[in-house]
Amino acid sequence: MNRKVHYFAFASLFLIWAAPTHGQAAPAPKDKDAAVADAKLPSAQEISDRCAKASGGKEAWAKLKTMVMTGTLDIPTYNVSGKVEIFAKRPNKILRVSTVADGQFVQKEGFDGQAGWESDPQKGLRAITGPQLEQVKVESIFDTDVRLNEVYPDLKVTGRTKLGDRDAYVAVAHEPGGKTLTMYMDAQTGLRIAEDSEGPDETGTVVKANLVFEDFRTAGEIQIPYRIRIKAPNVSLVIQIEDVKWNDAVDDAKFAMPAANAQ
To answer: Which terminus of the chain is more solvent-facing, meaning fewer CB atoms within 10 Å of its CB: N or C?
Structure first.
C-alpha cells in the first residue's frame, strides 16, 4: 500500500492542499565521486525487490485482505490535534477519515475500486474526477510496497543522498494524474523512508509536500512506519499510528460515496 497514509495519501489533507506552492525539499548535493557512485546504482527492479522484502515480503502481503489503522494527528502550525482512521481492502478500496479540533472538522476521502469521493464541512460531499481520480486509483492499491516496479512502470533510480544519518537511493516515478514522486529508499534496509511529491490538486494548482516515515515496527508480519511527518510550504503535521489490525471484516459499503449508500 502506498505510504501516503498517506503514508497512505494524507497529502489530501485539507491543510496541505490549502497551502501555496513553493520549492520542496531537495536531496543533499552529490560529492565529487558522484559519477562513480551513479555507475553503481541498483536498477529499478532491484530497488523494488529490496522494498518488497523489507516491508514483509510478497507472501506475507498475500495473506492480507483488509487493514484498519487508527492514530493521532498533530498540527503544531495551528496548534490543533485530532485523530485519523484508515480502512483499506484488497485490491484497491480505501477510506481515510481525519478529525481535528474536537470534531469540528472532519475530512473524508474514499475510493470504492471505481469511483472516488471526498467530503469536508467547507466543500461538502463531491465526486473525485479527472487527474485527482487517476491519482487516487494508484494510491489506493493495497500492496504497493511489494510491487513498486509494477505500480510505477517508469520508476528510475537517479542517485544517492543522505537523509539524516541514513544513506538512501533516490528513485523517481510518475502517477497517471500528473504527480511526480521522488522516493528515498534506505540503502541498508530497502525501506521507503521518505518521499517528495509534486502534482496538481483538483483545481489544477501544483502543490508540493515532503513525507518522512519513521519508527518502523512489525505489525503482524508487515513493517509499518508508526510515525509520518508531513511538510508543506506553510504547514507541518505529524501522524502517529497507534493500532493496526489486519483481516478484520470491512464491508464494501464503507468505501462507497454516501449519496450512493442512501439510494
So the answer is: C
